[in-house]
Amino acid sequence: MTQANGKGKRKTTTKRVKISEMERVKSPQFLSVYANSTNVASSFLDARFLFGQVLGSPTEAEHIEDSVSVTMTWEHVVRLRDLLINVVKVYEDKNGSIRLMDKTPAKK
Question: What pLDDT score does 106 carry?
Answer without folding.
Answer: 61
